[in-house]
């Protein structure tokens, strides 16, 4: 028949008096308080770092970190106590708090049994390391971890008889403004988002280019003065900009065999109007236009015409156009165009 052996809990006695304690830390607190003897702490298991610049402090508990941040770096923390009649009301308050602060308070250790009560410990979910303990490298997956500990925490004491809950709550977070470096996955996701955004912008500009070309064709087909633009080619249009190209032909010359000033002014008028149309989808009515003729252009030269919006207000739009030699890049002419774009503006 096997005999059962009884085990007794270890007792830590004070060597200066008859006091005894169940834990070594409680005995050390007694020695410091009653006998003014401070036992040096074992810092071998202190793994909670201070994230402040040029500070190499390591601490064993979040409470020690808070004390250090307060004394050494001037941070302020407040302990708040909350009472809840049931655990359900406590969890409802906790969920509402998490939603407002965009964090979660998660249990970091098992429940601790006290006399007629259970204690649960919660800490901010952003606490912790983003470095893998097995590989020593940055975790590949997306993580909210900061690489150090947040000081926000709560301790819930649940009465096992009445069900009432008392919460000790430290609400001040620490270190959330110190983001971890992005992972390779995060970088790739950002690139994919940029590509998708670029495709969306490209598609929008392509649709606006079609609408702008349609508007130009309708002007030419009306058979009025705008028919001189039949060789104008729209290269791009959208977001308040329009780029066109034109090869100077015989019908565009003046008596000297150069690009006619009237044709240049017509290009300024037309391209600036198309730039405006690409933004607000109405041409507006011209109020004022000026053209500076800088260099001559010959028959056969290819022109690069770029129009863009400087400003659009409630009633007025201010536009500018550069006419350049496509090959040399030299500016042939520059134009400024002011248009009325109020609700009554219906014709160019």
TrEMBL record:
Query: What sequence ranges are listed for the domain C2H2-type?
Result: 12-40
Q: Where is the signal peptide?
A: none
Could you state a single Gene Ontology molecular function term? fatty acyl-CoA hydrolase activity
- Intracellular or extracellular location(s): Cytoplasm, Cytoskeleton, Spindle; Cytoplasm, Cytosol; Mitochondrion; Nucleus
**UniProt keyword annotation of Nucleus present:** yes
Keyword annotations from UniProtKB, A to Z: Acetylation, Cytoplasm, Cytoskeleton, Hydrolase, Lipid metabolism, Metal-binding, Mitochondrion, Nucleus, Zinc, Zinc-finger
Q: For this protein, what reaction is catalysed?
A: hexanoyl-CoA + H2O = hexanoate + CoA + H(+); dodecanoyl-CoA + H2O = dodecanoate + CoA + H(+); decanoyl-CoA + H2O = decanoate + CoA + H(+); octanoyl-CoA + H2O = octanoate + CoA + H(+)
Query: Which domain of life, per UniProt?
Result: Eukaryota
GO biological process terms held by the UniProt record:
lipid metabolic process
Which CDD domains does the entry link to?
PaaI_thioesterase
Q: Give the family from UniProt.
A: Belongs to the thioesterase PaaI family.
Kindly provide the name given to this protein in its UniProt entry.
Answer: Acyl-coenzyme A thioesterase 13
Q: Which organism is it from?
A: Stegodyphus mimosarum (African social velvet spider)
